[in-house]
Predict the 3D structure of the following.
Amino acid sequence: MHISLHKQVALVTGGSSGLGAAAAQALAAAGAAVVINYHSQPEPAQALAAQIIAQGGQAVALGADVSREDQVERLFAQTLEHFGRLDILIANSGLQKDAATVDMSLADWNKVVDVNLTGQFLCARSALRQFVAQGMHPDISRAMGKIIHMSSVHQLIPWAGHANYAASKGGVDLLMRSIAQEVGEQKIRVNSIAPGAIRTAINADTTSGDAEDKLLQLIPYGRVGEADDVANAVVWLASDLADYVHGTTLFIDGGMSLYPGFRDNG
Ligand code: NAD
């Protein structure tokens, strides 16, 4: 089975590192032109775009803070200037500011919610507006447009010491499902991916050394995930092979959300 995203344009927020970079590479390998959004450091995003272009693909690196309305609107306008259309949004940007709730500053609460939840709303809103403006193009895709929200197993699993992060991802779940309910009739597909523990910069302290052994106790499948585990699913979910998948969350977590603490009778 061959997946082609030929003629499609994908925008990946936070695309210069980790899951976003892997998704951008995989989408480009499947034939999509890719916009690699970065927040503050252009160099890694530009290097990734250059690598994709050197491999015969199409890519551009564009800066924007996804929590800022004006910058998101500029990002989508620049996407159109570069590639003329948008078919796929991977709303991937996210961060953690960890603290016990009693010690958590309002600034750290707001920062996480601003990027992880409001940023997803702002990007989804701009994508929806663009999809509707473009209309249906069955020669390009069976859907008018596709949105994939990057959530987390912590949209489901409570996470002590990370209340801001878990609340933001719980919010992403109902944001995604509400939008999906709203725009399905327009043939716009909206879904989430909920990764478990995937080896990237966001969790480097827990995915190596002794900490990795502890982490593995939480993963029935017995290994930490790699960015490609998520990127492969992104490509499938964005493609017409997943045309009837709408309003759902795909957990890519080696079974982390299966309450593994109950393996030995609880
Ligand atoms: P990462 O730190 O490599 O990637 C996060 C990206 O978001 C970075 O590129 C960063 O520049 C970008 N970003 C941060 N603030 C931004 C802003 N204001 N505007 C635009 N971009 C911004 O980590 P990652 O693991 O690749 O995380 C990607 C997504 O996957 C996040 O939403 C994260 O919550 C989610 N996730 C990751 C894991 C994991 O195990 N790695 C698990 C569950 C969920």
User: Anything to note?
Assistant: Residues 106-134 form the longest helix (29 residues).
